Amino acid sequence: MLQAPQRTALSGPALVRLLSRFADVDVSEPRQSLSGRLSQWLGWTDAIALSSALTGAPPAVPAGARSFGSAEEAECARVRASLVNTITGDSAFATSKRRGPAYREPPAAPVDYVVFRQRYQAMQQSMETAVGSLRGRLRALLAAKTPAMGRLAVVDAVMERALAERERSLFASLPALLAGHFERLRDAAQQAEAATPAADEGVPAAAAVPAASGLWLDAFRQDMLSVLLAELDVRLQPVEGLLAALRTR
């Protein structure tokens, strides 16, 4: 008996694994190292700025700057929790269970992906603004510790500027990738509905599976929610790196 080939398990971020599964594609591990890929993303002006940050004199520690402590740790946790709550609390991603047992998708209203795309993009804007602001504040705290930490803060600032455009472009492609997932789930539900015998053929009406019943849409909402939370984790990785540096003594 022939067996379907097994996909190779990815070891990358959850975001990549989710997109690979939802797009139904087999994504192989990258052959190129991270440093090799970054070298292709950095322009010559970025390379000069990065070289200056790494080899130049470390910046002086500003006098009277606020130090890192429990209050700053709590603020970072608050920002993360606020973003998570904003994403999970958005009504566009609420499943029928969260909407109430009596809720049903209006059968007369066609489900349009444009609503989900707009909400996803709004969430991305919230994440970009909040994470960027938090990252800048942590860099300021890092620069106030030691000259070596100040150099690290400069390197982080250079990398953020150098990769911002590519990062924004890659994240902007996610709603389009999810559109394909939305269409596949919807089409599968419609095919299931078409294949279900009608009630007047001796099948109880309760056995029908209408495409607008909300089952496939609930699945899509949960999948989109998972992608948003995974994207948030990726966006917060530089913040986690700065926090790790700030926690060192």
UniProtKB/TrEMBL annotation:
Name recorded for this polypeptide: DUF3348 domain-containing protein
Annotated organism of origin: Paraburkholderia phenoliruptrix
Family matches, as InterPro entries: DUF3348 (IPR021783)
Family matches, as Pfam families: DUF3348
Superkingdom in the source lineage: Bacteria
Lineage: Bacteria, Pseudomonadati, Pseudomonadota, Betaproteobacteria, Burkholderiales
